[in-house]
C-alpha cells in the first residue's frame, strides 16, 4: 500500500517517488552543510542579506528532508537509519548539546579576546594558555560527569560525545580563520589550531584515564 499512497499523494510512480525521495534527502544533507559553512565564507553580500540567505537554505533543507521522508516511506527511512550508528546511552544528547554550547561560547570569547590570549612569539603567554585550557577542560568535564553520574567506561563515550561537535565545527573556524577571527594576528592561525587540538585531546584523556584506572590491578 505504501507505493500507492505515495503515487496518490504526489502523482508519481513508486520508482520515480523513490528516486525523487533519495535526491531530496541528499539535497537536505547538502543544505545542512551549506548552512554551517556559509557564515564563514566571504561573499560580496551585506550581513542582513547573508543571514537571509542562510535562513532560506535552512528552510529549503527542512522542506527537502520532510518531502524525502514522505516519498521514501518507512521502509527506506529505516534502511537509511541502519547505516548510522547513534549511541543509545541516556546521556548522549546531554553531552552532544553541551559540546555545541561550549564550542559556541568559546568561539564568541575568542572572537573578542583571542588577540590577547594567543600571541605568536609570546612563550610565557602561550604556555599559560595551554595549561589554562587543560585545567579548564578537566574541571568542566568532571563537573558534567558528576551532573549525569557518569562512571567507569561510560566516561570515554561521554568525553567523545562532548568533544565531537567542537572538533567538527572548529575544522571550519580554523579553515576560515581570517573571516572568523579578524581580531587575531594572521600568524596566530597555527597557534589556535594547536591550542584547540590540545583542548580536545585533554577532554578525551579524561575518559581514557578513567579506563586506565579501572584496568589497573589492585
Number of strands: 0
Q: Return the average pLDDT rounded to an integer.
A: 81
Structural class: mainly alpha
Range of strand content: under 5%
Shape: flat
What are the segments in which pLDDT stays under 50 over at least 5 consecutive residues? 211-216
**Gyration radius, rounded:** 22 Å
Supply the number of helical segments: 8
Structure description:
- With 218 residues, the chain is mostly helical.
- It folds into 2 domains: 80 residues; 124 residues, no CATH class.
- 79% of the residues lie in helices and 0% in strands.
- It has 8 helices and no strands.
- It is flat and about 70 Å long.
- 22% of the residues are buried.
Overview in brief:
The protein has helices at 2-10, 14-37, 47-81, 92-117, 123-147, 154-175, 177-180, 189-215. It has 218 residues and is mainly α.
Main features:
flat, disordered C terminus, 218 residues, mainly alpha, 0% strand, 2 domains, single chain
Give me the secondary-structure topology.
Layout: H1 2-10, H2 14-37, H3 47-81, H4 92-117, H5 123-147, H6 154-175, H7 177-180, H8 189-215
Amino acid at each position: 500500500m505504501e507505493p500507492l499512497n505515495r503515487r496518490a499523494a504526489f502523482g508519481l510512480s513508486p520508482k520515480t517517488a523513490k528516486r525523487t525521495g533519495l535526491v531530496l534527502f541528499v539535497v537536505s544533507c547538502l543544505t545542512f552543510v551549506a548552512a554551517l559553512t556559509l557564515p564563514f565564507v566571504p561573499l560580496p553580500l551585506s550581513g542582513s542579506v547573508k543571514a537571509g540567505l542562510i535562513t532560506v537554505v535552512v528552510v529549503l533543507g527542512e522542506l527537502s528532508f520532510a518531502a524525502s521522508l514522505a516519498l521514501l516511506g518507512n521502509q527506506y527511512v529505516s534502511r537509511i537509519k541502519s547505516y548510522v550508528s547513534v549511541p543509545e546511552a541516556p546521556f548522549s544528547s546531554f553531552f552532544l548539546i553541551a559540546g555545541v554550547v561550549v564550542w559556541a561560547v568559546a568561539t564568541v570569547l575568542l572572537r573578542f579576546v583571542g588577540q590577547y590570549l594567543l600571541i605568536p612569539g609570546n612563550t610565557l603567554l602561550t604556555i599559560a594558555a595551554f595549561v589554562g585550557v587543560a585545567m579548564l577542560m578537566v574541571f568542566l568535564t568532571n563537573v558534567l560527569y558528576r551532573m549525569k553520574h557518569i562512571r567507569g567506561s561510560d566516561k570515554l563515550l561521554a568525553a567523545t560525545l562532548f568533544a565531537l561537535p567542537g572538533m567538527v565545527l572548529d575544522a571550519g573556524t580554523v579553515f576560515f580563520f581570517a573571516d572568523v577571527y579578524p581580531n587575531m594576528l594572521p600568524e596566530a592561525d597555527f597557534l589556535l589550531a594547536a591550542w584547540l587540538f590540545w583542548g580536545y585531546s585533554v577532554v578525551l584523556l579524561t575518559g581514557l584515564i578513567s579506563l586506565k584506572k579501572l584496568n589497573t590491578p589492585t
